[in-house]
């Protein structure tokens, strides 16, 4: 396989990860090749494990797809509430913070409703709406197309957006955490945005529930050991005990470490 073909295959996978699904015609336009070339590439790439063809479009295989937002929002609601309260307790009035996409991030924003004079940099419309009731807050959103049903903004412009601000806190989640501590997302743009947020903040806070440990997602960016503070509802399975022990005081369990 030639170098150009390898690069084109990598770009196709990246585009599908970022957008969820892409048509053959759109890929041909984006890659500046013929639709026949794209179809030959897809004969190799669409193995059913990573990418698949569906009704003239290419999308991530079923087990690589993210759970719909509204379903995630009600999953482990008590755990998310505990995580959100623990994170919010660390944020004072007047703080400057960046908050990422995801249902746990929205829960954190809801827990911050009694704070005043916050400056919030976010690509999460749910976060913005949750904090918009306090008129002393300043809320900054990126431009661009709103992704539905997640109600957020992703893409290269969002990465640059977070790079233009310096914050005291960066609060973000991830789709999964590998046994090696790798932070995983469904789209490369999502994890790059989280990395940029963390790099631009004095303190990075990863807010995740225990079910994210061991959950697979295709895009990798950074490790959990890079994060200043991890707030989780309860300890993950025993497979992750060495990882948890290595984090020491940098991981906090909002529901207590002894909960089964």
TrEMBL record:
Annotated ranges, domain HTH deoR-type: 5-60
Annotated InterPro entries: Carb_Metab_HTH_regulators, DeoR-like_C, DeoR_HTH, NagB/RpiA_transferase-like, Tscrpt_reg_HTH_DeoR_CS, WH-like_DNA-bd_sf, WH_DNA-bd_sf
Record keywords: DNA-binding, Repressor, Transcription, Transcription regulation
Pfam family, one: HTH_DeoR
GO MF annotations in UniProt: DNA binding; DNA-binding transcription factor activity
UniProt-recorded name of the protein: DeoR/GlpR transcriptional regulator
């Amino acid at each position: 396989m030639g170098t150009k073909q390898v690069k084109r295959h990598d770009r196709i996978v990246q585009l599908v990860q970022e957008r969820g699904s892409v048509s053959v015609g759109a890929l041909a336009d984006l890659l500046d090749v013929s639709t026949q070339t794209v179809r030959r590439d897809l004969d190799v790439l669409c193995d059913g494990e990573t990418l698949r063809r569906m009704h003239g479009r290419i999308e991530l295989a079923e087990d690589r797809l993210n759970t719909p937002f509204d379903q995630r929002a009600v999953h482990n609601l008590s755990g998310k509430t505990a995580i959100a309260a623990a994170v919010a307790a660390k944020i004072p009035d007047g703080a400057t913070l960046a908050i990422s996409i995801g249902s746990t991030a929205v829960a954190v924003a809801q827990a911050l409703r009694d704070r005043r004079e916050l400056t919030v940099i976010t690509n999460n419309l749910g976060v913005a709406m949750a904090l918009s009731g306090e008129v002393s807050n300043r809320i900054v959103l990126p431009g661009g197309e709103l992704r539905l049903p997640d109600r957020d903004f992703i893409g290269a412009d969002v990465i640059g957006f977070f790079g233009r601000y310096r914050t005291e806190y960066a609060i973000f989640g991830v789709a999964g955490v590998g046994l090696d501590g790798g932070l995983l997302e469904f789209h490369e743009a999502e994890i790059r945005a989280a990395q940029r947020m963390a790099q631009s903040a004095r303190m990075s806070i990863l807010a995740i529930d225990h079910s994210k440990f061991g959950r697979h997602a295709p895009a990798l960016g950074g490790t959990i050991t890079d994060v200043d503070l991890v707030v989780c509802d309860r300890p993950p399975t025993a497979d992750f005990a060495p990882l948890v022990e290595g984090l020491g005081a940098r991981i906090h369990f909002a529901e207590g470490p002894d909960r089964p």
